[in-house]
Structure formats: C-alpha cells, structure tokens
Amino acid sequence: MSDDAISPYTLSTDDGDDRRHAFWADHVADAVLDRDPDEPIVVKGGISPSGVPHLGNMNEVMRGYFVAEVLRERGYEVRQVFTSDDRDPLRKLPRKLADLEGNLVDLGDVDAGALGRNLGHPYTAIPDPFGCCDSYGAHFSNLIQSGADALGVPIELASNTDLYEDGDFEAVTRFVLEHVDEAREVLREYQDKIDDDYVPFNPICSECGKVTETVTAIRASEGEVDYECTDMEAGDQVISGCGHAGTATLREGKLPWRLEWPAQWQVLGVDFEPFGKDHAEGSWPSGDDVARNLLGNEPPVPMVYEWFTLDGEPFSSSEGHVVLVDDVLDLLEPEVLRHFFAKNPKKARDFPLSRLDQLVDEFDRFEAVYYGEVEASEDERERAERVYPFLVDHLDPGTAPADAPVEERPTRIPYTFAAVLGMFPDHDVRVEHAVKQGHLPEDPSDAVVDRAFERVERARTWASRQDNEYNYTVLEDLPDVDFDAETEAALDDLADFVAAGHDGEAIQGEIYETAKDNGLPIGDFFGAGYELFFGEAEGPQLGQFLGKLEQEFVVQRLRREA
RNA sequence: GGGCCGGUAGCUCAGUCCGGCAGAGCGUCUGGCUUUUAACCAGACGGUCGGGGGUUCAAGUCCCUCCCGGCCCGCCA
Q1: Radius of gyration of chain A from its Cα atoms, rounded to whole angstroms
Q2: What is the pLDDT of residues A505-524, one digit of tens each?
Q3: Which strand (E) or helix (H) includes residue A83?
Q4: A413 touches strand B (CB under 7 A)
Q5: Is the CB of A92 under 7 A from strand B?
Q6: pTM of the full predicted structure?
Q7: Which has the least CB within 10 A, A140, A163, A211, A480?
Q8: Residues 419-438 of chain A: which lie with beta carbon within 7 Å of strand B?
Q9: Is there contact between A496 and strand B, defined as CB under 7 Å from any strand atom?
Q10: Span A405-419, pLDDT tens digits
C-alpha cells in the first residue's frame, strides 16, 4: 500500500484549522474544496443493480446529496452522478425481486429458468424478468432512480455498460493493458490470485455472452484482446464457460472492480464519493493505490458511512427483510426520511419500522427547534438551523430562521395522535378531534387540513402494516348488539364512571370493578366493549383506548345510544 | 488472530475532531391546569459516558489497555 494513502474516515479527521461544523456535510465540503476542484464538482455514488435496492442502498444517494447541496449552497456548480454497475455479471440468483412499483416478488413467480440461463451475463444483457424494462439491469436501475426521485434528489444515472460501449472507458482500459505489469504489481498487494498471466480485463464472450476471465493475448495498441471462455467460480458454484476462443475489443468487456472503480473516478472526474463500511478496509485502499500509482490520479475525497439495520436486523434482500423508499414514504413524509439520512454517518443506526413515531417525533422537535419554538441547547439549535433547510422544500439551504417565512411552516400533528385520528373513518370527526386537541387552528382552511392530514393517512398505513395498537377502526354507528341484562347494567355503570371524568388508567381499573360488581366474567365484559366500539371480539387495551376518545362519544356508545 | 469503526439515561439520540458543571426528546412518577383527555404547564426519578489505567488544575472528549458489537483481512463487488 502506498504511504500517502488517505484514510477514508474523513469525518474523523481534523480540518487542520478552527473550522467547526454542526453538519457533517460541511466538514466533507471543506475537504473537497481544499482540493481546489474544477467545476462542476462531481459527487458520485453507485451500486450494482443486482436486485432489490432497499432503503440501506439509499445511503449511497443521500450521503452524497447533502454534500452536493452544501457545495451548491456555497455557490459551486455540482453534478451528482450515480453509477449503475450494470456490466457486472449475475453471479447467483436472488431469492426476491421487486416489480417497478416496489412490490416484492419471489423468484418462483417470475421466469426463474430464464434467469438461471443468464448466470455470468452482464445485468444489461439479461432480459427483464418483469418484461417492463430493457434489461434486468435497467429494471433495478429504474428502481434506484425512482427512489432518488421520491426523495427529491437529482441524480444523473450513468450506466457502466454505456460507458464501456460508448468508449468512455476505452482510453483508461488501454492504459491499463499497456501497463499490465505495473497493474499486476499494484493489485498483488491486495489479491492473492495475481500471477504473471493475470490480465485485468474481462471480455464478454461473443459466443455465449458471459463475462470471461481468461485473456490469452493483449494487443493494446490495436485495442483488442484474445480470450478463451473458461469456467468461472462464483461463490461456491461454478459457472461453466462455453470454451469459445475469440477476440474482443476494449469496449466488449469490463475492468475488474478494483480497477473499474478508480477508472470511474478518472473518467467521470469524481471529487467526492461516499461508500459503505464494507469498502473501507478493502476496495478503498486498493482503489486509492490504483488511482495514484497506476493511473496517476488523485482519488476523490472518500467518506465511510455505517450501515443501518431494519428493526434490529440486517437488511437482507434474499430473505425479504427489506423496505423500499416508496414503502417508507407511505408511512412518513420525505423530510422525515431525509432527516434520518442527515444524521451522523459514522453511527450505525436502526431504522425502526415498529417505532417510526419516535423518528417522526424527533423530526418534529428538530423543526420546532429551527423555528425557535422550543428550548434547546446551543448545539442542538446550531444543528437545526444549519440542517433543517436542507430537509424541506419550502426553504433554500442556508436560510436562517430569521429569514424563514413563518406562514410556510407546516402544521404537524403528532404522529401517534395522527394514528388515533386514523381510527375514525369520518373526515369531519377527525377534524373535530384535531381541533379540539389544539393540533389544528379553529375553523381551519381545507388547505391546512389537507396538508396536516397527509400524516393521518400515513400513520394509518403504518398502523395497518405494523398491525399495532392503532390498527383499529372505530365504528361510527352503534352496531347491532344484543347483550344480556348483567352486561347492559355493567355498561351503564361504566358509562357513568366515564361521564364523571376519569383518565384511561382509571377507566381500565373500573372495567374490572364493574364486571365484578355485576357478576360478569371479565373476558366477556371486555368482549362486549370491543363489540361496541370495533365490532370485533378483540382490541387494544380498552381502558387506555377509551381514555383517548372523546368522552361524550364514549358515554353514548356505552349506553348504546349512538 | 490482525486492521478499522462504534459502545452516552428504560428507549431514540446530541455532545468526542477543539478537554471546562452529564444533555434533549420519548417513557415513567408527582403535582398543576383545562367543568372530559393521549393535549398543555411545572417538577422529580433516571448515568460506572462499555471496564481499567494514565496525562491534566480539569477527561464522555487526549493516551494506553481490556471487553462487547459490526465491517474488512480468498474470490466477487
């Protein structure tokens, strides 16, 4: 490894002066600008379109985005390029796929045989299993693009296949093959398999279409190599070659990853690139080395980000433990999700679908701190003032709170209260409750209600998908019930208790008392309550729940009056 | 085994780069207010800053060491 290799842990490094930033992206932007980059400054990310692009993959888009936006705010022209490494060969069949709407689909539900026959082929040369896009690679690239779109991030998607076919990679590929000895020498530091016959170029077999590994002759000046289509090991299985011996141009193949990444930096002029921690100790040092000591380039400013988990478990496309951006945006507003990605990339975090309310509450506070509505520490305020404008559409980055038009400030209903509102099917009832609780102004305009109630729909979807304690629908009208005399008496007693004004905990206790006083088995009494309010045999903790509803409604329903 | 990143209140996280009283929200508890409340207000409880050692007038922050978790250390990407 070269001695001047730079640490990818950019956020852990000293600026070298007294600059102190509330936002990590400012720290990175400083590091980029210290290089005196030419404009447009290029921020890159990229993934292999091998399967379902889940929320974790969005780090690759969002981490770069915030740096790009900070640079734009400082007056620089910035391109955010995203490479789809779609010339990579399919090495194993994914167990789960996703259609263009983001719905997960089992491998068995598509033509798995057609996919299996394409092992070893570039993703862009494999038919789209859903038949909707030009290729397998294009299909999943589209999903990445729509994820970025949904979060309002303008990326320029660059297909590796196109970069090869259009000749953008030709010069650097030729250079590598002309300096194959030096290339081997650099790579040998990182890979055991580099012998004197190793050629860092993988031609695509003209006969069977597979990405091959055996180059038998190099004619760099003529822009050609000879190859033999030999067997290829992929994990624990072998993808067999067809044995064809042929000739390929430098546009008809690909560079191996350790060279391809630095080649992208050179061809696209990349100034900054974030990447997951899996690259930190592996391909980053080798890429840095290749860029400096083989290609003679300065590598981009790097930044390692930690991975996050989904409900405490690693993302796993194959096991279906994934969530896509579109799924998440059914549950919370884009700005809340952007806030999640604006947090310190050095920390491994959980994305808790089960506790999304906490994530939303955190954002609501962050927003309130920005607008100076709540007390906060100096650090917290500094961070909110700097970061918040990057999260929302209604402010430009760099806007100080004093300059922010207050009338644009969104009305937010606390998330769990929104979930409670969601239990009522009737719109007017929802509004009534929200106004009464002070979460909406008196006589709110339709526009204010519509905007605030977007969260009600989301919270309702959340309750339904999580099937949690908010996933119930309150019956608007008295259901057709027929209780015995004891039950009716007990319900009347409970109604009197509620009418006297007690909180949920007290009501819960009283339910037990009332049942006992009237000689009812407690389970039957709870059942009667669930029947009355939900038309179901079971429900949420009843006392707590009734305490959350409007008293008059509860009393009338308990008395079977409405 | 080696390298790297992380570990702060019950939960979610700021604060570590640059040493200066251990912080916020949620949750819990107490009280208040609203002639109803999950709302609102006030307060309380809650900590071995993973453990230990060192430097310092002063350490969550710097140094050493150990523990735990993740990533990397064959190929691929």
Answers
A1: 30
A2: 677 778 888 888 888 888 78
A3: strand A78-84
A4: no
A5: no
A6: 0.90
A7: A480
A8: 420, 433, 436-438
A9: no
A10: 888 888 888 888 888
